[in-house]
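All the exercises in this workshop are built on plain-text protein records. Instead of coordinates, the fold is spelled out as a row of discrete tokens. Once this layout is familiar, the rest of the handout is easier to follow. The record below serves as our worked example for the rest of this section.
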Amino acid sequence: MNPATAFARVLVDELVRGGVTDAVLAPGSRSAPVALALADAETAGRLRLHVRIDERTAAFLALGLAKASGRPVPVLTTSGTATAHLHAAVLEAHESGVPLLALTADRPPELRATGANQTIGQVGLYGGAVRWALDVGVPEPGREAAQNRYWRSVVAKALLVARGSLSGDPGPVHLNLALREPLMPDDSGTGQQPALPSGEFAGRPDGAPWAVPAEDGVRTATLADGAPAGRTLLVAGDAPSAIGRAAAVVADQRGWPVLAEPSSGAWGATGALRGSALLLGAPDWLAAHRPDRVVVIGRPTLSRPVNALLGDPAVTVETYAPTPRWADAGRGSAVVGSARLDPALALRDPGPQASGEWAAQWAQAARQVGAAVDAELDAPTGGLTAPRLARDLVAALPAGALLVLGSSTPVRDVDRVAVPRPGLTVLANRGVAGIDGTISTAIGAALAHQGAGGGPAFALMGDLTFLHDLTGLLPGAGEPRPDLTVVVPDNDGGGIFAQLEPGQPQYAASYRRVFGTPHGRDLVAVARSLGWAATAVSDPTQLVAALGAGGPRVVVVRTDAAAEAALSTRLRAAAVTALG
């Protein structure tokens, strides 16, 4: 049994032994071991589990359960902004003396302060509003007996403190749960994670080189420092658009292939290649065309294949972040520089010209992958799937438009299947990559974009992301309303998990409850009830017409999570075949 699963089962067992009868969770990936342990406990009749898609709602539900029962009630979240949504309920529990137990999943220490996806400073997050807070520590293999005693003692103390048994002052307690992959149970005793889908890669091995930055938090370096000749690739992650555009100018001048995330500012650059995750997911092709050097701008967060490339010890990685919070989640960067100190990267010596033949092979491969993707998406039985929606939406937008992408599946669909194009401003909340506040972010961005003379605005977000911020659809009386069209692929729940490890058949028993989290709502009716024009579309012609109707408007496309998980597998296979 892997350490994360062992820890989660002991944690839940001790909660039940300590008198917990109800628990609440909001879905997430990092919290998967504990979520599944809670689901197993419910199946065994040991507690009642309550599932909510909004962490704020989940926290106040737990507060109500604890207030009425007088018993501690845990509320579980994944890492990142999800944890911040507990804060209001924690404050209420603090002032009213309610035994609330905040369980926040977290990245392990080696991924903190490295730009790793969905990672914030969670230790001490709730300040003086909790009676006790503990960063529990990472479960490790080979120390089961000692760790079991420690974990049980932690839970026992947390329940005692929450009840006020030690002080006479009940209130909230925060346990921060740092968990390493593998996160899904194997029950084989080997501790090995089930095989990832074809074309996906786990992270880099431990022990890759790490350059210690200077005392000011930034090691300044030119792009030419120690540069191998010939095979240089630019990877552009989320960054201010000016920095991404400047990096793209360098890449264009030097002939570097560009793998750019949609919100990088470099996505519409001349050398930007389509479908980078699919391209890197063809291992035989990549082995023959691997770069010697990768220059990273911003924070790449979308793709396991990109992260695997950055963790390859045979590749020299140079990272240039827009702030001292550089992105090096793999801890493999040989050079750490700051684009913030000199955004005009085109004025710096970028190193040698790329091999023209090698760069042309990357461009040709991207075209081959794109053709294979289009053939799959345009198949007669395909319909308007979420990936096809992403591709067709980007292609249909007018020049000068703004596109705001929700986290989870939509931004990844655009990244892997849409054709990069100039003339668009593409934004996404990739700092912590939460799904919260996306409608409000899109409205604010649209107001600013159109206030500066920009064109119409569009947003692409999943159904849970949409439901998570419904109050964003309610501007006050007299407040300006932008020309914004919100496009929602609705697969009735958290569809991204169907494409990740939780969606594998061996986890089907608990999948729908704790990961899929179906909502069963008519989103057109929901949007209309809040005063927005709304329509459902089911084919490309209807989509184009709806996009041209103007906003404020909501456009809903019904999709199927299981079918799209299968489509994702076919897309990876088609890319490998195209490059075979």
